[in-house]
Amino acid sequence: MIDELDIAMKAREFIRLCGPSAVPVSVDAYAAQIGGQVLKETLGENEDAWSFRDSAGRYRICVNCTHNARRQRFSVCHEVAHVVLGIPSDHTAPSWSYSRRPPGEIACDVFAAELLLPYQQFKPRVDGSDLSIAAIGSLADEFDASLISTGSRFATFSREICALIVSEGGKVRYSARSARLREARGWIRPGFPLPTDSFSARIRAGERPSGREDADPDSWFEDWARDGALFEDALHLSQWDQTLTLLWFDDEGLAAPVPERKQWDDDAYLLRELDGILPWPSGKKRR
């Protein structure tokens, strides 16, 4: 299985060949690059898209017209990824369930997110944004991409000490961490329940979100041994029982790490890119 860096490099080379010059990018141009055409059809409720090569050798990408436009855009890019990466489709698990997603489908999700949120256009906007769910939502609007895909790449490319966490059924299923948080050894264990008194747990229980709150680092990070102010912003998607959490540290107040810390196996915390099916939030501003 190719790793995420290889996937990203392949996607960026593909983007270079297509030459998108404006955002939001044209998914039809991506389809055309593989000799394909996008068709909109009524598919099963949990079926995003499928593709095939016709008798003339042209690809036909059929997307579910009953899904929202952003989900359709992601689905097109996902099908393009199957062709470029040479990965067969495996739709045995629903696309919205991160816990049961096959590795090949996750790889195509990574590729699709790279296509929808091209690094050269996306990274400068991340650098100029506030740390908040609202800022992620604004970028999702600009790039016409899902909140989850946008938030994942937002955290990955951020210059700050931050993480984007997606929980499903009250348990952490995925986290994307900035380079600085990885360097600080900020581990978030998959399968870990949302901290009981956290902002995220409370909005999952029905509390209305009201902007960022202070958070307890020891409740979120394993073996955390550094002082510093942690902040939390969150949004709950009740339709899928999924919670989106943005965590970030006050850069100036974060103490140096304690020496001789326990070494962790990085492979146990590999990140998985998310699909494009979730909506975006209303505006809530960071202080």
Index terms:
287 residues, alpha+beta, Beta-Lactamase, 3-stranded mixed sheet, 34% helix, globular, disordered C terminus
Largest sheet, order of strands side by side? 5-4-8-7-6
Task: Give helix and strand order, one letter per element, not per position.
Answer: HHEEEHHHHHEEHHEHEE
The unreliable regions are: 260-287
How many strand elements? 8
CATH topology of the largest domain: Beta-Lactamase
Please name the CATH architecture of the largest domain.
2-Layer Sandwich
Whole-number radius of gyration? 19 Å
Distance between the termini: 43 Å
Strand content: 15-25%
Instruction: Return the domain count.
Output: 2
Mean pLDDT: 83
Structural category is: alpha+beta
Task: State the shape.
Answer: globular
Number of helices: 10
Task: Classify the helix fraction into a percent range.
Answer: 25-40%
Largest sheet: 5 strands, antiparallel
What is the highest CATH level, the class of the largest domain? Alpha Beta
Description:
The structure is a single chain. This protein is an alpha+beta fold and 287 residues long. 34% of the residues lie in helices and 17% in strands. The chain has two domains: 4-116, Arc Repressor Mutant, subunit A; 119-269, Beta-Lactamase (2-Layer Sandwich), CATH 3.30.450. It is built from ten helices and eight strands. A five-stranded antiparallel beta sheet has the order 5-4-8-7-6. A hairpin with a 4-residue loop joins β7 (230-237) and β8 (242-249). α2 packs parallel to α3 and α3 (69-85) crosses α4. The model is unreliable at 260-287 (pLDDT under 50).
